[in-house]
Amino acid sequence: MRRMRNLKIVATLGPASSDHDTIRALFEAGADVFRLNMSHGSHDDIAGRHAIIRRIEQETGRPIAILIDLQGPKLRVGAFVNGEEMLEEGAAFRLDLDETPGTSTRAPLPHPEIFRALEAGASLLVNDGKIRLRVEECGPDFANCRVVVGGVISNRKGVNVPDVVLPLAALSEKDRADLEFVCDLGIDWLALSFVQRPEDLAEARALVRGRAALMAKIEKPAAVKTFDGILEKADGIMVARGDLGVELPVQNVPPIQKRLVRKCRAAGKPVIVATQMLESMIESPMPTRAEVSDVAAAIYEGTDAVMLSAESAAGQYPVEAVQTMHNVAIEVESDPTWREVIDASRKVAHETTADGIVAAAREIAEATNIKAICCFTESGTTASLVARERPHVPIVALTSKQETARRLCLTWGTHCVRTDPVDRFKAAVLSAVRAAVEYGFAVPEDQIVVTAGVPFNVPGTTNILRVAPCEERLIFHSEPE
User: Fold this and answer.
1) For a designed S-S bond to 405, which of 63, 133, 228, 268 qualifies (C-beta 3.0 to 4.6 A apart)?
2) DSSP letter assigned to residue 60
3) Per-residue pLDDT at 209
4) What is the CATH topology of the domain spanning 84-160?
5) Cα–Cα distance list, 66 to 34, 201, 306, 464, 474 (Å)
C-alpha cells in the first residue's frame, strides 16, 4: 500500500461514501485521510463511519487518519412571510432582532453579537455572497442597509460579515458536545471553524486535552490578518477557500493561498488546500481542465494535502475523484519543474540541533545514492521536520505510537510504519532497514539515512544521523551499540 507520491489526499465521507466497500475503494484509490463533517450527520452516523475506517486500517495494515471538522457558529437570517423575497439593487433593507417573519423591506437577524460589532459602511453578505448589503446606520438591535447586489433572499440563508471581528467564540454549544463525543471515540485531527484570532484556539486546546491534533481553518479575513499567531498555536492549517472567496474579492484568494502554504512549510506544520478543487466531478466523471490546473498549482506550491468535499461525500463519482487527484499528483511530481519550484521555495531557518540534523539528512540524500530517510519519532516532530525539508527521497516515519502514525498521514511525503519501541541505536537502524526493504523503498544493496533522538522515546531530542547499509549483516559489523 505504499503511495508513489508525496502529496496527501483528504476525502470527505457522506451519503455517497458511507459503506465499507466504498470507503475501502476510496482508500485504495489514494485517500490518506478521511474527513467527517459534523455539520452533516448524527453522532451515530459519525460513529459508524469511524468504525469502518478503523476496520479498513486493520485489514490493510496501514495507518489511516480521521479528521473531524466542527461546524462552528452559524450566522443566518430568520424566516420570511412568503419563504423568499426579491431584493432590488439600490433598495433600502433593514435587519433587526424582531422575530417577526421578514418581508421585502426587512428581515430578522437573531444575532445581537453582529449588531454589537457593526459599523456604518460595513458589508453584510447573504447566501454565500450572492446578496451584498452595505450598512448605512446601525445600533445594538438593528442595521439599516442599502442593497448593493440584489437577488432572492430566502429562509435561514447564511450571513457573512467580512469587515469586522465578531465577538463570537469559535466553539458553539453544539461544537463542544461534538468535540467531546469524537475525542472519546478516538480521532486524529480536529478542524476548528470560525477562527478569527490566535486566542480562538485556546478553548479547543483545553477541551481536547491532547486527544487529537488541532487544525485551524482559515476562512475569515480576520484570520488572514492574524495568521502568524494562529499558525504558532495550531498543529495544522486548512486553507478553506470557499468562505475566503465569499468574504474577500475572489482575486485575493490565490496569492493568500500561496503565502499561507509557504508559511506552513517554513513552520513544518501540515497544510491542506480545500474547497471546490474538483467541483464538477460531483456530477461528471471528468474534471474540467481548470480544476486539474488548480490541484496541480497547489502541488507545485508544496502543500501537504488537497481535499475533496462534496465530490467524495455526495457526488456521483467519489472514487474517480480521488483517483483523479492521485493521477495529477503522480504527473506533477514527475515533472522536473516541480522539483525546481519546491527547492527554490525552501526557506528554513536552522536554529536547533534537530534542524541541522534533518537538513543534513536531506543534503546527504541529494548528494549520494541514498534511497530513503528513515526517522524514529515519538511525537511526530522529527518526521515533520524532515518533511519540512521536502527531500528528494521518500520519508519513512517509524513510531511505536499508533496515534503518531495516524497524525503523520497528513504530512507531506511520509510513509508511516508502526514499530516496537527501541532503546539502542543499533536496534533502531535494524528496524529502519527492515522497514525500508519490506515496503519497497530499498533493496539490500542500497543505503538509507537514519535519524533519531538519544535517549530514545523522549520527544524533541533529534540529535543523531547515520548512513546505514540495507544489508543487515553489515550493520552488526559497523554500527555501535
Assistant:
1) 63
2) H
3) 96
4) M1 Pyruvate Kinase; Domain 3 (2.40.33)
5) 5, 20, 15, 32, 40
Q: Which residues contact 167 (CB under 8 A, 6 or more apart)?
A: 113, 116, 117
Q: What is the mean pLDDT of the chain?
A: 94
Q: Report residue 45 as a C-alpha cell.
A: 452516523
Question: If you search the block for the grid coordinates 453584510, which residue do you land on?
Answer: 124
Q: Which residue, among 263, 260, 315, 262, has the nearest Cα to 291 in the 3D structure? A: 315
pLDDT value, residue 473: 61
- 149 bridge partner residues: 132
Please name every residue paired with 126 in a beta bridge, in sequence order, or none if there are none. Answer: 131, 159
Look at the domain 353-478 and name its fold. Pyruvate Kinase; Chain: A, domain 1 (3.40.1380)
Q: Backbone dihedral region of 180: left (phi > 0), alpha (psi from -120 to 50 degrees) or beta?
A: alpha
What cell was used for 468? 546505514
Dihedral pair phi/psi, residue 417, rounded to 5° = -130, 125
Provide the grid cell at 477: 559489523
Burial class (CB in 10 A: 0-12, 13-18, 19+), 400: middle
Alpha-carbon torsion (360, 400, 458, 238), positive or negative: positive
Reported as a pLDDT band with limits 50, 70 and 90, residue 1 is low
Find out whether the peptide bond into 391 is cis, omega within 30 degrees of 0.
no
Other beta carbons less than 10 A from residue 102's beta carbon: 26
How far, in Å, CA of 27 to CA of 56, rounded?
A: 9
Contacts of 2 (CB under 8 A, 6+ apart): 415, 439, 440, 441
- At CB < 8 A and 24+ separation, what contacts does 337-340 make? 337/300, 338/299, 338/300, 339/392
Strands 462-469 and 447-453: antiparallel
Q: What is the pLDDT of residues 53-86, one digit of tens each?
A: 999 999 999 999 999 999 999 899 999 999 999 9
pLDDT tops 90 at residue 175: yes
Check if the beta carbon of residue 327 is closer than 8 Å to that of residue 299: no
Of the two residues 355 and 349, the one the predictor is more confident about is 355
Per-residue cell: 157? 440563508
At the topology level, CATH places domain 8-72+170-337 in: TIM Barrel (3.20.20)
Res. 345: pLDDT tops 70:
yes
Please answer whether residues 297 and 239 qualify as being in contact, where contact means their C-beta atoms are separated by less than 8 angstroms: no
User: What is the mean pLDDT of the segment spanning 160-184?
Assistant: 93
- For the residues of 184-239, what is the DSSP string, one character each? HH--SEEEEPS--STTHHHHHHHHHTTSSEEEEEE-SHHHHHTHHHHHHH-SEEEE
pLDDT tens digits, residue range 8-23?
999 999 999 999 999 9
Which residues carry out catalysis?
35, 76, 217, 275
Confidence of residue 280 (pLDDT cuts 50, 70, 90): very high
Following CA atoms 396, 401, 406, 407 in sequence, which dihedral angle do they give, to the nearest 10 degrees? -90
